[in-house]
Amino acid sequence: MAISLVTGFAGQAHVTPAQDGAGYAGIVGTGCYVTKTGRMLAASMSTANKCVVCDGDAWMYGRHVRIEAGTTEELTVQSGSQGTKRNDLVVVRYAKDASTGVETASLVVVKGTAGTTATDPTYSDGSILDGTSPVDMPLYRIPIDGITAGTPVPLFSVLAPMSELQDSISQTGKWHATRGGGIAVVPTRDCILDVELSLSNVWGYTGGAFSLAINLPSGLAVLANTNAYGSGGDTVGRQVTSRLVASGAKAGQSYSFSYTLANGGGFSDPMWIARELPSS
Question: What distance in Å separates the CA atoms of residue 141 and residue 78, rounded to the nearest whole number?
């Protein structure tokens, strides 16, 4: 049967690990990640030959691997040799027994080759979603110089929780708008402010040139700005727009933006739009 209802009652056990993993891969991602739980599989060298990996969670192609809270895993790292360098890799290894179908995950140290320079060793690459076994997820590189094992270097990607993504979506791009001689913006978080002012029916005195600029409030720094320029007599009005992008805005603080119209008049309908942008 090519199609099946995975999350439905079938009168018998019918959900396979492959189906469950594929479902999670569609939500979490089809790669390998460490999530922000526990100590995020933090690693350190407790001795020259012992690497300790702390509790946390990893996702490998939709499969969930966990070191229980408050526990650690200890791995043996073989000693180096004087005058040589070597890179070892700490990996999470997924494996499926071909005869029994039993699947396991374990932490393994993949030993590199010693030499005058250090390169990462080859590990078992592939995707569990394609039925590959074994599959390694590199967690750390352990640089070994002579007999000294260095600090483990993280190699994994960290997957942010949905709560952080929601905060980012809800706060990024918040808009403020008003009409009149200025706009007061109170940011909802530390951010960059992108402010735009449009004037309709602007003309230059005696038909000459005019300019429109947004004034920078104190406490902010200009990242970019565009002043509007034009010309025209009393009967030749123009619509013009100026824009200012400023950094340093702090959450909860009020910033009042005003404008300067040089050698111009006759305008109507000042329209202000301000948008909060993430500062990093």
Answer: 14
189 and 59: one domain? no
Q: Token pair of 16, please?
A: 């396979």
Query: Is the pTM above the cut of 0.85?
Result: no
Residues 186 and 97 in one domain: no
**What is the domain range of residue 132?**
17-159
pLDDT digits (tens, 9 = 90+) for 106-160: 999 999 999 999 999 999 999 999 999 999 999 999 999 999 999 999 999 999 8
Cα–Cα dist 107/76, whole Å:
11
Residue 104 CA to residue 171 CA, distance in Å, equals: 41
Burial of 88 (0-12, 13-18, 19+ CB in 10 A): buried
∠ CA 164-165-167, nearest 5°, is 65
**Residue 123: what are its φ and ψ, rounded to 5°?**
-125, 175
Pairing relationship of beta strands 148-149 and 175-179 according to DSSP bridges: unpaired
